[in-house]
Write the structure tokens for this entry.
Amino acid sequence: MSKQYKLVRCTINGKQVEKMIDVRASLTDMLRDDYRLTSVKKGCEVGECGACNVLINGECFNSCIYLAIWADGKEILTLEGLAGPNGEISDIQQAFIDEAAVQCGFCTPGFIMSAAEILESGREYTDDEIRKLMSGHLCRCTGYENIFRAVKKTMLRRLGKHAEADQILT
Amino acid sequence: MYDIKAIYEAESVAHAVQLLMEHPQAQIIAGGSDVLVQIREGKQAGVELVSIYGLDELRGVSFEADGTIRIGSLTSFSHITRDPIIQTHINVLGQAVDQVGGPQIRNIGTIGGNTCNGVTSADSASTLFAWDAIIELTGPGGVRQLPIQDFYIKAGQVDLRPGELQTGILIPRAAYEGYQGHYIKYAMREAMDIATTGCSVNVKLSADKGTMEDVRIAYGVAGPVPMRAPTAEALAKGKPTSIQAVEEVAKAVLEDIHPRDSWRAAKDFRQHIAVTMAQRALTQSIQLAGGAVHE
């Protein structure tokens, strides 16, 4: 077995950090074990379910199939990074609650990080585009309609289209 | 933790070649969406890796002096789809790689990895075959280039010699200028699925848009490696853009392809959809090129 380590310096949720990391670690391993960011879930661990999804330099990646050493010099955002200064949850998280888009919750952080990438772009996407952008995740509890609605409503509200968002029936 | 014996990170292409020569057993890892999954499954357990993921010099799409489009081998699928050069000149490639896996996979997956793993189902491969792509390899003996058809040796095996890595994919000007193309992926789901069969067609029409001057038809999962349909292509040249001609060309692909039965689909079914896909992709390409398929 390897005893190979590498110093990995990166920004995680806005904070500059560095640690010696086992080169065999996935980014999921590093975020969970070294930084205790347990919103990053271990699901399939082969890049299919999306439970470990995080943003790296603003793009979505399944951290289970991303080597931790590659995170050197990158900006990483996990679900914990969406919280406000006093730990308040973000609008997209609230929308998941309001729309009952959460049941067991295991897939939720991954879904929300894909939603975060969509919402950060400031663009208005069509229903088909949202479905495609959210397609890298599996949910076995809720079905996808509630999740889709939570994302769409939050997108519309951020664009100031509150009336349109409220019209979408739950 | 992955079962990795050691990992060597390349700092430049030359350094990657040096590392590959020093560690002949090592496997190259680009984005890792295949390699890491194979390690997880135990197929590559205890492997030594040379990571080229950090080589930003192999990212991006640009023009060579002679108008050749160069795609750096580490360019991710999502960056190819969004690239203005791709969108203007070979948009079908951006559309094809936008059907790989899901969004996260398209951010990590690289076009170099998609072609070096030698699989027939790669969504990029059939389109690159259709565009007469040239593969650029850099190794201890320098740089060599070869047509993508010669790069694929057999299922899962490409012409990558000891110490070599793929550094670019080139689309010559003559291959793309005046051509329009369309790709169809047939799969069971719209995301996170592998093509049952994929068909990529491009066409060059005469000035009056009434005649197919040149047609290129390529398939994934119609044989052990991606392939062209030369019989159908030869038949198409000089034909009018008529419904009858398009149907005739589409049927002729059966002379060229040899799909097999697999758990994903039966041979008969693949043959059936291959004809339909050729017909639809050719029709769509003719329309994109400004023509119309008439009676």
Remarks:
- Chain B has three domains: 4-51, 57-174, 180-288.
- The interface with chain A takes residues 1-7, 9, 29, 32-33, 36-37, 40-41, 51, 53-54, 78, 101-105, 107-108, 190-192 of chain B (CB under 8 Å).
- Residues 222 and 259 of chain B are 4 Å apart (CA to CA).
